[in-house]
Amino acid sequence: MEALIGGRNHSWRNAALAAALLSGVALTACQSGPTGELTSVETAQGSSENISSLSAVISRNPQDPEGYNVRGSAYGRGGKYREALKDFDKAIELKPNFYQAYANRALIQRFLGDQGKALADYNQAIQLNANYDAAYIGRGNLYRKAGRTQDAFNDFQKAIQLDTTDARAYHNRGLIYQSQGQHAFAIEDFSTAISLSPDAAEPYNGRGLSYLATNDEDNAFADFNMAIKLDGNIAESWANQALIYERRGDKARAAKSYARAAQLDPNYKPATEGLARTRGS
What we know:
Structural class: mainly alpha
Oligomer: single chain
């Protein structure tokens, strides 16, 4: 789900959502958003060369909070969470009303497992700037993962009311609609997410599942195929494609797609169970 402020967004994927039960098979969608969290980093932005360049800028301007915020973002993308945390701490020390740094630090706190501190930082970012859409989206994801669905929905709704152009708000609200069986609303939100982030695979998976839940198999299949075309390393996409093949009676192709999903994620049950059903057919 999320991106650190100061760089491009990137794709994510997380645990599966039970979207529908069709023909006795559970459908699953990625539980985050097309712009993701730090599971897929842009190596150039988190590279040692980039860090060195940013450190040189900071050494020339050690009292500039922006420099620490940018370097902290680069550290975060490179998986160096402790270093990122120190830089965001310094940015906030130099600029106590630096709401972007609070939101960035909140995301790092989440990855370090301190959800309480993450929530406090998101709250502080919103207190400093009540119109900061990224903080609502980040806090919404925090709420969603804690099972606070209504609070999450309210935050995504608020970001959308602020005219956000961040696809995560629509994608994640779509996931909530989908989990509640409101597939028409879900399809609309996933479609908006796609228009805002056309290169992200996850909203295609989400929309495909809602199409399938409404028995629109052709559009579902098209969306799953597009998800694979955009990112062939997401197990859910292959398992969803396999499910269509299985429903159509093409067990050989289904087994091949399930096998690819299981290869990408050996612990992904829809893939391993689907492979067991179709292997050798």
